[in-house]
Amino acid sequence: MADLTLENVEKHYGDVQAVRGVSLHVESGSFVVLVGPSGCGKSTLLRAIAGLEGVSSGSIRIGDRDVTDLAPRQRDIAMVFQSYALYPYLTVLENIAFGLRARKVPDAEIDERVHWAADMLSIGDFLDRYPRELSGGQRQRVAIGRAIVRDASLYLFDEPLSNLDAKLRDGMREELKRLHAEIGRTFVYVTHDQIEAMTLADRIVLLDGGVIEQDGPPLDLFERPKNRFVAGFLGSPPMNMLDVSVNGDEGLIQLADGQQLRAGEGTLPQHNGSCVWGIRPEHVSLSDGEVPSVEGIVDVVQPTGSRLFASVSVSGQRLTAELDAHAAIHVGRPITLSVAVERTVLFDKNDQRLV
Amino acid sequence: MTSWSTGWRLVLRLCLAVVVAVVFFFPICWLAAISLKSPEEIFAYPPVWIPETPNFSSYLTLFRDGDAWAVWNSLVTAGVSTVLAMVFGTLAAYAIVRYRTGGDHLAIWIISQRMIPPICVAFPIFLLYVSLGLIDTYVGLIVLYTAFNLPYVIWMMRGYIQDIPVDLEQSAMVDGLSRLAVIRKVVLPMVQGGFFATAVFTFIFAWNDFLFALILTRSEVVTYPVQVTGYFGSQSTFWSKIGAMSMLGVLPMMIVVGTMQRFIVRGMSMGAVKG
After folding, report:
1. Could you give the strand order of the β-sheet that contains A252-255, starting from the edge strand earlier in sequence?
2. Which residue of B has its CA nearest to A144?
3. Could you tell me if A77 lies within 8 Å of chain B, comparing CB atoms?
4. Contact state of A98 with B175 under an 8 Å Cβ cutoff
5. Is 90 exceeded by the pLDDT of residue A12?
6. Per-residue pLDDT, B1
């Protein structure tokens, strides 16, 4: 088990800059998730940590070793690939034991560790089968087993759940979290799925365009996003973004059609002028007539069983509200919605940063 | 009605299979029969299909006179050149696929070498071999067959290696293998079928070569196709020897192809369907 330090890591592919000066310290034993949209550089960064891609500049340290120029096999890491990367000509047992055999671990120890991993991942009954005889979820467990059976300093996961269906993904997420708690190793995990990032991580590193937009505990990013990109990326449905004018001195928010909301004293930052108002759908509710509210017309209603998502046209802009599953609303009818202003955020319209 | 037509279809298929088998096996059976016939039976009319008393004297003569060494010479030259071509060709194909050695067009250029009619280069190679002292040597034939087979091996192995997901190799490297160990423990098992199929065709090319073996050998490393032609004389033709020598030449190939049949079929269909 070791910590990981990236210093000013850059990666170019010709003229394209995939990673731009990323510096990051991952504490030993933590579960860090690199998340971001496609092409943000997260997988490139993970592959650079693994040694599967060289870096153009900067350095990578695992523990107290500078591994920047070392081959993957010299870095003492284990990795789970998106495609599982199981050897089709080997049984599950041989797949899991592959890394140990490559490192010339004695047979008795291999046997003990393979069975420990198989028990932990509930794949003990499949050890004699070939990968083609397993379901997607079972294959993924074998891939994880092949990684955890190694006594590595660092465990890397490259979108390991993205090939699974939604139900299996939920189950595997839970298992991964339990696994991390049990073995207590350093995990670096890449995903484009913000739910995975929020549920698994001790710490999220959100990337965009090859740079870290924000990193920290999941709730910090969710509740206090540094900029509009972070706010929009985390959360499902995403945060609503309304163009408004703010008068911070008087605690007023005005929409384009003239609707005004009076926020509580000290709720708004001392800022006057145009802003983007960020409102999470769960912070909008049917008005009870007491808290600040906005009026609009219901466009679309999407019941999910447990909740109901209503798309409402407010001042010519779209506002999604997460309401009670039995809320009595109808498409095309006017609606008044309350907004928990103290839980909303304002972004500068020019630089998109948190006001 | 359906079972009736299915039955007829089966019968037709079986008949077709029998016809094809007869067409392909008849020359071999005829050769085997000739090699065991007495001189009278060879020229008898109507033909004698099965010799009354199998006559092994032609085989005994081939071994006694040392002519059978030609089969050994063929085995050595074809076997060693196949091993060399497979080793170097596979490594070259790997480099082309994974390191993009030579850019996008090197593989095409390499296979284009195979399109040169061998007779065009026969004379220059003869002159070169004379000056290098490689005429009538194992080394000479082995080097030549290796060189001629390399483009084919590179081209075929390149296709098979391209089908291997790169994640498998990278996973093995993370697990602790060097690049060479990855080729041995991941790439080769993955392309096993194609590898053996390519090896068999490479071996067949060298085994059947007549042109270069005729030009570049004298007496020391005469291969079996050249040896067979020695029995066609201006005065007489030794049919029983031709039959016996041909059988000695055909048998190793039948053994090789028979044992590798599983791999050959799999190798030829590899990449046809994405698994």
Report:
1. A260-262, A252-255, A240-247, A272-279, A345-348
2. B171
3. yes
4. yes
5. yes
6. 53
Mean pLDDT of A43-47: 95
With beta carbons under 8 A apart, name residues in chain B contacting A102. 172, 175-177, 181, 185
What's residue A134's pLDDT? Answer: 92
Nearest chain B residue to A151 by CA: give it: B175
In sequence order, what are the residues at sequence separation of 6 or more whose Cβ sits closer than 8 angstroms to the Cβ of residue A137? Answer: A164, A168, A171, A172
| Chain B partners within 8 Å of A98 (Cβ) | 172, 175
Angle at which helices B166-175 and A92-102 pack, to 10 degrees? 50
With an 8 Å Cβ cutoff, is A133 touching chain B?
no
Region A247-271: mean pLDDT is 82
Provide the token pair at A67: 């591994």
Q: Is A45 on the interface with B (CB under 8 A)?
A: no
Work out the minimum CA distance from B175 to partner chain A, whole angstroms: 5
Reported ipTM: the value is: 0.84
A110 Cβ partners below 8 Å, 6+ apart?
A97, A100, A101
User: Each residue of A6-43: b (16+ CB within 10 Å) or e?
Assistant: bbebbbeeeeebbbbebebebeeebbbbbbbeeebbbb
Quick: pLDDT tens for B61-92: 999 999 999 999 999 999 999 999 999 999 99
Residue in B173, B186, B192 nearest the CB of A87: B186
Strand order in the sheet with A16-26: A16-26, A4-13, A57-62, A65-66
Q: A81 to chain B: nearest residue by CA?
A: B167
Q: Which residues pair with A353 in a beta bridge?
A: A227
* Backbone CA torsion sign across A222, A228, A229, A235: positive
When pLDDT is cut at 50, 70 and 90, the band that residue B274 belongs to is very low
Determine, for residues A72 and B170 on separate chains, whether the beta-carbon distance falls below 8 Å.
yes
Q: How many Cα atoms sit within 13 Å of B1 on the Cβ side?
A: 0
Interface touch B175/A87, C-beta < 8 Å: no
Q: Partners of A2 in the beta sheet?
A: none
> Are B97 and B158 within 8 A, CB to CB?
yes
Overall pTM surpassing 0.80 (yes/no): yes
At B88-116, the pLDDT tens digits run 999 999 999 999 888 888 888 888 888 88
Instruction: Give the gap in angstroms from C-alpha A74 to the nearest C-alpha of chain B.
Output: 7
Average pLDDT over residues A185-190: 96
Enter the DSSP assignment of B183. I
